[in-house]
Amino acid sequence: MAKNDDIYIKIIKDIQNIIQVELNNEKILLATEKIKLRVNILNFIKIEDYYDYYCQNKDFEIKNLISILTNHTTEFFREPEHFDFLADEIFPEFIKNNKPIRIWSAAASIGKEVYSLAICYLEACYSLGLKYDSIPPIEILGTDLDAISIEKCENGIYLISDIEKEMGKVLIQKYFDYGTDEFKKFVRIKDSVHKLCKFKVHNLLLNSEDIGKFNIILIRNIIIYYKRKEVKNIILKLKNNLENNGYLILGHSESLNGIDVPFTHLKNSIYSLNSEPSEDLTRVFVIDDTLTIRDFLRKNLTKKEGFLVVGEAENPIEAMEKLSQLEQQPHAIILDLNMPKMNGIEYLEHLKNKPHPPIVIMSSVGFDEADNGIKCLELGAFDYIEKPNGIHSTKEILNIKNTIMQARKSSKDYNLKNRQVSKTIYSNNLPKKISKPDLIAIGSSTGGVEALQTILSQLNKNSPPIVIVQHIPEYFSLALANRLNELCNLKVYEGKNKQILEPNCVYLAPGGKQMRIIEEKNNLILEVNDSEKMNMHKPSIDYMFYSLANLKNQVNICALILTGMGNDGANGLKELYNKNAFTIAQDEDTCVVFGMPKEAIALGGVHQVAALNEIPNIIKRIL
Hints:
By secondary structure, the chain is α/β, with parallel strands linked by helices. The protein has 22 helices and 25 strands. Helix 5 packs across helix 6 and helix 15 crosses helix 18.
C-alpha cells in the first residue's frame, strides 16, 4: 500500500511542478482520488501498470491529469459586481471615445468568463445606441493551463440546463444558437460573439510578453491555490501585460493585501495599476462605508478632471492599513463621520499631532450632526461639506472638486499648520492714530473655526461688540456659537434679527442667512434676512462688511479677514479701509487656505498682515 502511495505522490509532484499550486494533505488525497478515476477510465487494475503507461505517454497523460486536477468551477456572469463595474464605469468610456480595448481572462476554464465579457461589452454598446457593425474594436483573450479546457472554450458549447441557471433566457436567445436532434439539449455561442474572442494554452508562471498589453486582466479564484511567493510572481508578470492605469480583477475571496505590488485597491477585489507618478493629478483617498458614495466619487474624480482616487476603505482601521502600503500618499482624504469599527471623529483624534494629508469631511448635514461637525473642524479637518444625496447638481460636484483642490493646495504646509509667527509681518500705511474700535468685524471660512477660537479665547471683558461671518453649513452655526461660548470670556450668540449689539458680546451669523448691521435709535442692530447669496455664500462676509461701510454715523471699526478660500470679504474690506476702518489680514503661514486674505491684500485693503497668534495682541493693544 505504501508503494502505491509513493506512485500517486510521484505523479502528483509531476503535475505540481507544472501548475505550481500549493497542495495540503486534503488536496493531495483529493488528487489521489482523481488519479484513481483516470486509472479506472483507462481500465487499468493496478496502479503500477498505469504508471508504466503514464511514463511512456507522459505528455498526453499530463495534459489529461491537469484537466482532472485543476478547478473548473465556473459559470456565466459569476460574481456579477465585476460585470456591473465594467458595464457602468469602464466600457462606456472606451465605447464613447471609440477606443479599442483588450481584455485577458487569465483563467478561462471552459470559456464562460470570456463569453460573459463579450456579451457584457456588446450589451454596453447596444445600450449606447450602437449596432454590431459599428462597435469599437475589442479583443478578449482566454488562457488556461488545461489544453482540454481550451478546446471546450473554442467549441463554445454548453448544456442548456446549466446556463439557464446562470443567465436569463433573453440573453441565451440573443447570443446562442440552439442545437437540434441529438444536440437539442445544448447551445453554442453565436459567431458574432465568438469572433471577438481568442483562446490559448498558457502557464501563468511563464513569461507572457508575446501576448501584448491589455486594458483589463481577470484572474479570478485562482491565486488562492498558489503559495504567496508564486502569487507575487504571477501578479508581477501580469503587471507587465497591463497598460498604465489598467485594471486587474481578482475573485471576491482574493486580495493583494500584504503583497508588495504596484496596485491600488478600488473595490470588490478590483485593482488599478498605478501609473507613473504625475504631479498634475490630485490624489484622493476615500473613507466611507457607503458603496454608492464611493462609486459617485470615483465616477466624478476622474483623470480627465485631474483627479486620481488612489484607494478606498469602508472604515478608518482599514484605511490606515491601506494608506501605509501606498507608495505615494494622497493629497487629500475624504472622510465620512458615521462608520463601523472607528468613526470619523475617533480617526481625527487618532491623527491629532501627527502629520497627515488634509482631511475633508463629507457627511450628513443636520442639527444632529452639528456638534460632531464642529468637533471635526476643531480637530483639524480641512473643511466640512455635505454628503451628496440623490440627484447631484453640477454646482454640488464642482464644490466637492474645488474643496479637494484647495485641500491639496494647503497640503504642502500641513505639517506646518500649527506654526505661529510671533510678529506682525506686514504693514501698509497704518493710520497715524488708531482709534479704539466701537465694533470688531471678522470674516472667515476654511480653517476659520480654529482661527476664531484662537482669537476670541484671548480677548478679555473690555471688548466692543464683535460680529462674525463664518462660512459654515446651515445647521452648524448654533453649535459653533455654543462651542465658542464655552471657550471664551465673552458671551457668544448665534445672531438674531433685531438683536442690539452689546459690549463683551459676540454675534455669529446664522448659517443659511445673510446678516448685516444697521443703525436704529443710536444703537447698532443686527438684521438677519433671507437675501440672495453674495459671492456664492450665505452668509456672506462682503454682505456684512458692505453694511458696515454704509453706516451713516461715525463708528470706529476694526475689521479682520481670516483664513478661507475664494474672495468673499476682500471687496468689502477694501470699502472699510477706504472709510478709515483699521483692517487686518491673517498671514499665509498660519492660514489653512490663503485665499480671502490674499485677495484683500492684492486690492490694497489691508493695514496689517499678521500671524494668527499675533492678531489677539494687536486687538488688545488698540482696545
